[in-house]
Amino acid sequence: AQSVAQPEDQVNVAEGNPLTVKCTYSVSGNPYLFWYVQYPNRGLQFLLKYITGDNLVKGSYGFEAEFNKSQTSFHLKKPSALVSDSALYFCAVGKTGANNLFFGTGTRLTVIP
Amino acid sequence: NAGVTQTPKFRVLKTGQSMTLLCAQDMNHEYMYWYRQDPGMGLRLIHYSVGEGTTAKGEVPDGYNVSRLKKQNFLLGLESAAPSQTSVYFCASSWGTGSGDIQYFGAGTRLSVL
Predict the structure, then answer these.
(1) Which residues of chain A have a CB within 8 Å of the CB of B21?
(2) Please, which of A19, B4, B14, B15 could form a disulfide with B106 given CB 3.0 to 4.6 Å?
(3) Of B13, B6, B10, which Cα lies nearest the Cα of B34?
(4) pLDDT tens, B41-97?
(5) Segments in chain A forming alpha helices (H)
(6) A99·B56 Cβ contact <8 A
């Protein structure tokens, strides 16, 4: 079975500081890992994904994530937070041969001016 | 470029009423999905389709039916709405298997069942 855990419901960070949104996963076999962002009253938007290759993945809007197989983690990071980064962030996991993704419960990021 | 369009955006139903949510995509995607989003529970897959004329159950299919008569459209039906179906519903589509491909989401339908 596949599952995703986002241990923090809420993350607050000051503008200009680095941010991290945590995600751990459980899946048999090699994982496909995604981050999506949701702005108020909008659908989810793709940020980045890891399928294979380099463990550090770069995505949209300056975000990046590092795949750590030994810790089964895929934390989202950004060196310098912007107020406009405030949103709800979802981690998701899939795997080879599956037809769908499993989403975490989401982490609300608030960047304080 | 519309992407994924959901109609309606809002709806209020009484218990026992029926309704259909429409999802349309203009990207020629094979895969389409219906999710529900509830506070503290993230997104849960209701049903999905891997191509025209096909449908399959997701995590939480009970109380819902779907149809994919045309490649670009994926309909979600509630035959007899219950208060537990109050939620925000999202449709998504992808080129290939949703497990490895990027999913593109609609803006959502907010449904209240009284």
Answers:
(1) none
(2) B4
(3) B6
(4) 889 999 999 999 999 999 999 999 999 999 999 999 999 999 999 999 999 999 887
(5) none
(6) yes
